[in-house]
Amino acid sequence: MEDTIVAISTSLGVGAISIIRVSGNKSISLVNSIFKGEDLEKVKSHTIHYGFIIDKEEIIDEVLVSVMLSPKTFTTEDVVEINCHGGIATTNRILELLVENGGRLAEPGEFTKRAFLNGRISLLEAESVSDLIESKSESQRRMAISGVNGRLTAIIKKIREDILNIIANIEVNIDYPEYEDALEITHEYLKEKGKTIKKDLELLLSNAKVGKLIKSGIDIALVGRPNVGKSSILNALLNEEKAIVTDISGTTRDLIEAHMTLNGIEINLIDTAGIRETEDVVEKIGVDKSKQIIESADLIILVLNNNEELTKEDQKLLEQIKDRKHIVFINKDDLETKLVLKNNLNIIKGNTKNLDGLEKLKQKIIEMYNLDQINKKDLTYLSNIRQINLVTESLKSIEHSLEDIEKEIPIDMLEIHLRHAFDTLGTLIGETYEDELIDKLFKNFCLGK
Amino acid sequence: MKYDIIVVGGGHAGCEAAHISAFMGKNTLLITMNKKNIADMPCNPSIGGTAKGVIVRDIDALGGLMGKVADESHFQIKMLNSKKGPAVRSLRCQADKTTYPKNMLKRLESTKNLTILEAMVENILVENKKVKGIVLANDNEIYCDSLILTTGTYLKSNILRGTINIEEGPHGEARSNFLSDNLRKLGFTIQRLKTGTPPRIKKESIDFSVCSEEYGDTTFFTFSHDDDPKYKIEEQQKCYLVYTNEVTHQIILDNLDKSSMYGGYVTGVGPRYCPSIEDKIVRFKDKLRHQLFLEPESMYYDEWYIQGFSTSMPEEVQEKMVHSIKGLEKAIITKYAYAIEYDAIDPLQLKPSLETKIIENLFTAGQINGTSGYEEAAGQGLIAGINAVRKLDNKEAFVLKRNESYLGVLIDDLVTKGTKEPYRMLTSRAEYRLLLRHDNSDLRLREYGHQLGTLTSQMYENYLNHLKEIEELKSFLKSTKLEISDKIKTYFSEKNYSIPLNKTSLFELLKRPEITMEFLESIQEIPFNENCKEIVSIEIKYEGYIKKTEKEIERMLKLEEKQIPIDIDYNKVKNLASEARQKLETIRPLSIGQASRISGVNPADISILTIYLKKEYGKDE
What we know:
heterodimer; A: alpha/beta; Gyrase A, domain 2; Four Helix Bundle (Hemerythrin (Met), subunit A); Rossmann fold; seven-stranded mixed beta sheet; flat; disordered C terminus; B: alpha+beta; Elongation Factor Tu (Ef-tu), domain 3; Arc Repressor Mutant, subunit A; DNA polymerase, domain 1; six-stranded antiparallel beta sheet; 20 helices; globular
């Protein structure tokens, strides 16, 4: 890794500023060659310098340049970051200049990869860094940081330690069969310990579900017949006119996605086109999609009209959402009640006209997902599929050993399961070497992290 | 005078090395200081033990001597861990310290191509980094093409007891004063190791009436794959169990500063797994007693060995310690316990063939490589012998993998991880021990032995017959179907077993966890030998576990296949951690697999190395 890599490390788009990151042993001389200002090769580490990026005589942009010398940098190599004015054209121009002068465009995830390969961060931390950069809400950020700090690593280390203790004891029993000094691991003992470890792993996995909430947020679909007020509810929740609200049925033909946060958790609101049997082709596409949304959303809010009797379509929708996580919002309760509903636990009444019932609706969502508790918890969650799979695999091994205890399989055989769980958890925190894992892992990373 | 191969040292490593080299047709000279000490057992009077017993089986499977000599020289034999799973069963025998060396010497003396010489070797002749011969203490030179050093604990050894420090080897034999210095001059790193042995007491002075008895097994066992048992079950000798007590512990604590170890008179590093009694008492303060086993050393003299009581206390303290034990109040000590310090080389300087990296055609085996134990030594001696021969024949080195034998684990650990204390084999060191069992030793290794030319034709035939029998047993179990009569029904229900369908094969029945071979035999005669039954029922019963292990092996072998070119320049591999670079440079692993087992080389270093190899060597990697 002798070459110096460059990439735009902020998201491309119209932001106030963009940052271009350069890492490698030539990064300082590289930036210096296109920088007009102080001689960057003479400045102290971790300092910021004002100046201009120039192409021969032409001034490209007015910039701030941070110089960070190895090893106390993200990649442990010399790193320079150029803070330039946002805008695709300028940023790209500077990037091109760097490449023309000997930099190489970084591959996806390459900065993190270097940080990992240079031993600065563990595998788990490397994954968390990618999460941190992708994070949008405060909770996401905290979770990512907690991964970076190795808190999850510490928890897994603790579980591994527990497993190792049992393994070690079993080994002593085997290697010193005649010695009474060592605790004899019996099936009963192993059962008890195994159950504790099982619980620890299960906790990690159930927390992972919360972790998924934090990372991906909750997808909430607003469904209902046309003109029951879905878009108005959406707007009221968002406090902005996102959906087009009219009195004409079937106005919202696209699935409108809007984001809000509840207790720091991202909520993705999907306003579906009014669902009804229709011949209108454009509208039909929207309706089909709505049905899909019902299948894939985390939570469905079915909106019904208090002022109308229950229609066949309503009944059909009620049937569709019956087995899904849902809330029924009975809108227009300021008007005469014509709607009769059998007892349904998740009913909230209100109206968008006076903004009644919307706070209740929010509270209901918070309640359903225990969102009020999430923020108080330690945010140590497994945050991607690979991590979850490895923990699941370890859990399976432990469960296997518990099953085989019942079959009275000898302890030293059961230990094979324990070792497998131990190794698998080791893979998770990068303490067991696994061949192609690393390359694969970094391929899943996005550019310029 | 010139030999093909010279072996220096007549201990367990030397015997196997010299025998196999001569057996493979090389004109071999074994040099020992005293023929009387051929295959000497200076410490415990037993051969085998957990993991070690499997090593002895493996040595036998490959044509070595230890198993056969042990079989004809013991007075008690036991299968350890017989109540645990199949992977950890292991034989141990109480070997007679008089007959074992005699029987070994007899075999060596009748080995063709082998000459035994009594002499002391003090230097090695080297030309262009290649072995040429040796120099004896009397300055005579003997030449050879290959040299195997199996010097045991005799390199600059010191016997320690309290403040006493004598420059000699075990049994008051002369130590080698110059060989280790000369090795150092040749470029070897020399380390100082320590081990110890307990006191011996006179049989008649033991009050056996207050000791609990320890018996041998009542079924026949042999280490050898070729010989039938040569002993009578009822003639096996008993061992005894006694305990230390608070008085013993107080004596030790009161005199701690007088022990060589705690008084600071020892520089060598001792083994953690084989602590002195001082160590046990200091480290495990809350233990009120420790077990001690009383074992006869021989049927031809009346000295008994106190297993678990090794110490470096002065003689007068040892007297008090021994007499504090119930049953040993009047014991007469015939030999005092001692600690022994000796020089060893750093095994990281060895190739997996046990040839040194520094001097061509120089091989080392046994305690000089930092191991402890007769079995570990013998196993290395065998492998060193085989490889010394193969090197002279320009053949590829014989390297056992970790999934093939404890010997593979042992040597891989030594040359990859090194050792800072005398290395003892433990079952826990073998990650694939489910496959490295006592029962399948010949299945794992005899074919290799055959290809290497280390087996007599009879040995190979025994193996082929065994294979055939196993296959026959399997088809017998598959074709024998159980008729479910009323009697059988009741028999099953009495045992609380669910009643199988009519005409279920015995093979299928064995898959059920509760149904054992013994149970089936109570219904249906199974006319096959015990070993076959054991192997087959393990294969059936633990199929899932075996498959799981095999999967892991597959993963390991994949990394093993990724070879590292021998001329790799680690300075060119950028970004390696400096510790990793240094370790890789000294050890020079042959594969990514081996590299990944080096302590201090972490996964990140392995990734960097893999990427470098891909870049530099492309598809060759």
